[in-house]
Amino acid sequence: MPHNHQPNRTTPTKNPDHPSDLSGVRPEDCEYLVDRLCEWLNNELSQLGDDPALRMPMASILATLAHLHLTWIRPFGDGNGRMSRLLEFELLTRAGVPVPVAHLLSDHYNKTRDMYYSILEQTSVRPGYPAEDFVHYTAQGLVDGLREQIAQVQEMQLSIMWQSYVHKRFHGQHIQARTRMRDLVLALPADHWTPIDDVTILNRGLAEAYRSKTSKTVTRDINGLVKMGLVEKQRGRCVRPRVEVMSAFLPPRRDPSAGQ
């Protein structure tokens, strides 16, 4: 669709199921505008190029504008929002954006539903129908989603590396006490301190391993893990695994605020 073309607007109508519900263009204009939209999209897709440094950002902007224009036209009796998001997803994947990334925008719209409808309404009623706010809103959602995905992936990598590291530290040590210590450190949650009185009930295996043991055995095992550098003890009452030692093996992450 040419950038200088704007469909005829009608006054938005309210729907109790949504914060705003645009009524779309006149029915007799739908076919023409959808054809122009498809023509414009096909032309832009053919010019994306092969450089991934440019192709991905340009595809994201194109998909966002396609979403916005189809929402403005509203050619269907129902499901226009779903079709707009589906078109956006199709354009992203066609341009080579990985599927997990292409799903991020729909997730963003669901999480910020009120803002989504508010910005759509603003773009449809303001003079010139400016798309910049919607493009910025979707771009921010995509960036936030990518950062969250990267954090989740690195958290999984950290967990796998930690388990492998602990197993290597106990490799070849098959006596009961060492197996018990290994299982204890692997069971400790990485995101908070665990009271020492609770470590023996973290799972069924530990409960069974310590069932006939005294508190002295628990203390001895924990002190042994502290000496190995696998566990940190806080004031003698709580413990946590030193998973952060694995961070040295992860690729460095750029501070998002560094460029601001």
Write the layout of secondary structure elements.
Elements: E1 13-15, E2 18-21, H1 27-46, H2 52-73, H3 80-94, H4 99-102, H5 104-111, H6 113-125, H7 132-169, H8 176-187, E3 194-195, H9 204-209, H10 215-227, E4 231-234, E5 238-241
Antiparallel strand pairs: 1-2, 3-5, 4-5
Question: What characteristics describe this protein?
Answer:
Fido-like_dom_sf; 10 helices; 260 residues; single chain; Arc Repressor Mutant, subunit A; two-stranded antiparallel sheet; 3-stranded antiparallel sheet; ATP-binding; disordered N terminus; 2 domains; mainly alpha; Fic-like fold; 58% helix
Structural account:
The chain has two domains: 137 residues, Fido-like domain (Fic-like fold, Orthogonal Bundle); 80 residues, Orthogonal Bundle (Arc Repressor Mutant, subunit A). The radius of gyration is 28 Å and the shape is elongated. The strands form two sheets. A three-stranded antiparallel beta sheet has the order 3-5-4, with helices on one face. Strands 1-2 form a two-stranded antiparallel ribbon. The protein is mainly alpha-helical and 260 residues long. The longest helix has 38 residues. The relative contact order is 0.08. It comes from Actinomyces glycerinitolerans. One of its GO terms (molecular function) is ATP binding. This is Fido domain-containing protein. Keywords: ATP-binding, Nucleotide-binding. It holds the Pfam family Fic.
